[in-house]
Fold this protein.
Amino acid sequence: MKNINYKYNPETLEYIEVKTSFWGKIKKISYYLIASIVFSFMILAVSFYYLRNYIKKESYNESQNIRQEINAFNADLNNILEVLNDIQERDDNIYRSIFETNPYPNYKRKLGTGGNPMKFKKFEGLTHENILTEIAQKIELVEKKLVAQSKSFDEVFKLTKAKQEMLKSIPSIQPVSNKDLTRIASGFGTRMHPIYKIPKFHSGIDFTAPIGTEIYATGNGTIERAAWSGGYGKTIIINHGYGYKTKYAHCSKLNCKTGQKVKRGDLIGFIGNTGQSTGPHLHYEVLKNKKPVNPINFFFKDLNAEEYAKVIEISTRPTQSM
């Protein structure tokens, strides 16, 4: 049905049909159109507001996740650097000292470190600029350390090939079976004397074990002494050559004789409680050019890195010798 508008005429008391002109129709349509545009704009504004907040929230969450991953990676790099530093320490102070050679030159280890700071310009302006630059520097440092350590180990390998016999002779295992590392009772250094109760230098490591526990030669050599030796009780001394000797004291029984040739791992005696001893144990010493050195530096053949660290921790506890 056609929509017709009427207007009341008070003079004639009649309703007169109102005819809308063309421009009137255009004006009416314009009102509807403007209202629609305004309404649509309001919907778009509200939608954009919520969409922008959603995107902002998601971007923040993603940024936080990326930050956590970067921090975890940075922590892993720190652990790698610690391991490399430990390897370097062993290389300079254990492996090379065994071959009586100087540590790998420090200037060679530092060759190429520092580098050109311009290579890190690419991180400028990024969200995580500082930590990304730090990680890139650490990666470069790891690469340099690995190259230097590889060259150092090449030298050590050459020394190894040239001194196979020396390696067989140098003490390199624990003198008793100690897989769980529970038998070390007292370490190298100043300790409380068990009898005199005063601080005295302890020139070896004490291993506690029941009487009769097997004692093994820690390197190839010749038995220099197998007899009673004052406060040390029944004692074995092995001359390994190359300036090295080992001492095994407080034995209950000897399984070798003076002048006998032995190899690493040979059974040479049994743990006891002879001499000045407060309980069954083995007092073990390593001597280099007649001077006692810390035996834990000579357990490298039967300990991994974790076990070696544990032995160091145990041997440095403030205990008294036995």
Notes: Residues 65 and 274 are 65 Å apart (CA to CA).
